[in-house]
Specification:
By secondary structure, the chain is α/β, with parallel strands linked by helices. It contains 16 helices and 16 strands. It is globular, with a radius of gyration of 21 Å. The structure holds 6-O-phosphono-beta-D-glucopyranose.
């Protein structure tokens, strides 16, 4: 096999504000939902439901304390102060693009203000200007699990229609501010994760609702508001920044039937259909009929305002980005099967696949299948904006990490991408998740490391926070430098 990646392929890395920046109260930043996320050493790291869970009591407690030991996203990896050093390392790594997000409460501390926080705006301008100076293309997510906490407390998060206008204002301000520096935008990170961790995504605290159905209905309403907000942001970016491109961002959850029993196939189909729902709305510009039917069957009243359908239809995305970490299995006999974990779902174990230390099923072929599936369905360019393996790395005496397991993981995933490109997929780029070690989204651990660059900090924030290159650093640099050819030498 040879390399089929296009000349201008955007090899890159990804981080998110809430997992990297730290400086949670610096220069006027307000509290975000991420500042409530606790490191929970007594909860199993495979118990994702309870790792993500946030109660009203948790919120009240978080607001009373300035602790950063058990609230690791408040400290991140101090990217806020070290971004120049980190960007220089990314340059050395050869990144052509870097995916970052803008913390909404750094710009609007409560979310509903009229005037932005100038210091917040200045921070991202400095970051983007430095990226441009280094010739690293910014890929910017407007919302990555970091809405202002104030909107949860005072508006019920995205359940309130008013939040669309607040987000729209935020989006317009940052687009106006950075449109000379940013070409590639994403609206909502993993917009499909609303049901898996509703607090982090749409600010829904489940205990506020008196039944499972009421919670589900509220989440659908919040999601509808996000879809509309996403389309409005897309409209605005297209209007003021011709040439800019806006993408949707999906967690790709590829589900296989356990057997050829038609009942297994039907179950897998339902799972995959649910996953497609979110990108269908953003790419096709309309709700799939099965979702509308589901609402009717369940008696859910999802409020649409006049014009919502037109906005969704007219302002669809230019490309579809997605995260890919694992594949899943659907089985009618799930009760009798071994289970595996994952921050996105726990499910039936696939006997053909290895798992990571966190029980995530490693499946490069699943990435190939996902690429073909999404491209054949949507026929728009695809962008892999998250992929990688979380592992317990060990820093050696000479300050590196011998992470051959990471190299093996990426090599197989890159080969799968290359094959999909050979088979006709239009793939714009690839950004590895946690290109530098950052705080885990689901478990708030620092010891779940994804990076090519090691950050000397443990789960309690102890350490120098110095950065060290892992063995995989040079390996990835060569892949980028040769545009994938080194994979086949
Ligand atoms: C994705 C998120 O779901 O997975 C990232 O968009 C997250 O924010 C990544 O970090 C990996 O998950 P985790 O829980 O291992 O950090």
């Amino acid at each position: 096999m040879k390399s089929y990646f296009k000349e201008e392929f955007l090899w890159g890395g990804a981080i998110a504000a809430n997992q990297a920046e730290g400086a949670w109260k610096k220069d006027g930043k307000g509290m975000s939902v991420a500042d409530v996320a606790q490191f929970k050493p007594t909860v199993s790291v495979k118990d994702y439901k309870n790792q993500w869970k946030v109660t009203l009591e948790d919120i009240a407690k978080a607001k009373r304390t300035d602790d950063v030991v058990y609230y690791p996203k408040r400290r991140g990896i101090d990217f806020y102060h070290r971004y120049k050093e980190d960007l220089a390392l990314f340059k050395e790594l050869g990144l052509k693009t870097l995916r970052v997000s803008i913390s909404w409460p750094r710009i609007f501390p409560n979310g509903d203000e009229t005037e932005p926080n100038e210091k917040g705006l200045a921070f991202y301008r400095d970051v983007f200007e430095e990226m441009r100076r280094l010739d690293i293309e910014p890929l910017v997510t407007l919302s990555h699990y970091e809405m202002p906490l104030y909107l949860v407390d005072n508006y019920d998060g995205w359940v309130s229609r008013k939040v669309i206008a607040f987000f729209d204002h935020f989006a317009r301000v940052v687009v106006d501010e950075y449109k000379d520096l940013v070409t590639y935008w994403l609206t909502f990170n993993e917009i499909d994760s609303v049901f898996r961790h509703p607090f982090t995504t749409v600010g829904v605290v489940e205990e506020k609702y008196d039944s499972k159905e009421a919670t589900e209905e509220a989440i659908y309403q919040a999601l509808h508001h996000q879809f509309v907000a996403s389309a409005l942001a897309t409209e605005y970016i297209h209007k003021v920044s011709p040439g800019a491109q806006v993408g949707a961002m999906l967690t790709k959850r590829m589900t296989y039937p356990e057997t050829c029993n038609p009942q297994d196939v039907k179950l897998a189909l339902a799972e995959n259909r649910e996953n497609h729902f979110y990108s269908d709305v953003q790419v096709f510009g309309e709700y799939p009929q099965h979702i509308l039917n589901e609402w009717r069957e369940k008696g859910y009243q999802i409020h649409f305002e006049d014009g919502d359908e037109t906005v969704l239809k007219e302002h669809t995305v230019d490309y579809l980005s997605f995260s890919y970490y694992m594949s899943m299995v659907a089985s009618v006999n799930a009760d009798q099967r071994d289970k595996v974990g994952g921050n996105i779902t726990a499910g039936v174990k696939n006997p053909y696949l290895e798992t990571s230390e966190w029980d995530w099923q490693i499946d490069p072929t699943g990435l190939y299948i996902s690429l073909i599936d999404l491209y054949d369905r949507y026929r728009i360019p695809l962008f892999i904006v998250e992929n990688g393996i979380g592992a317990q790395d060990v820093l050696t005496a000479d300050k590196t990490v011998v992470d051959d397991y990471r190299i093996a993981y990426f090599r197989e995933h890159f080969k799968a991408m290359n094959e999909a490109v050979k088979d006709g997929v239009d793939l714009m780029g690839y950004t590895s998740w946690g290109v530098i070690d950052i705080v885990s989204a689901s478990t708030s651990q620092m010891s779940k490391r994804y990076g090519f660059i090691y950050v000397d900090a443990n789960d309690y924030g102890e350490g120098s926070f110095d950065r060290y290159k892992k063995k995989s650093f040079d390996w990835y640099r060569e892949v980028i430098e040769t545009n994938g050819k080194s994979l086949f030498e």
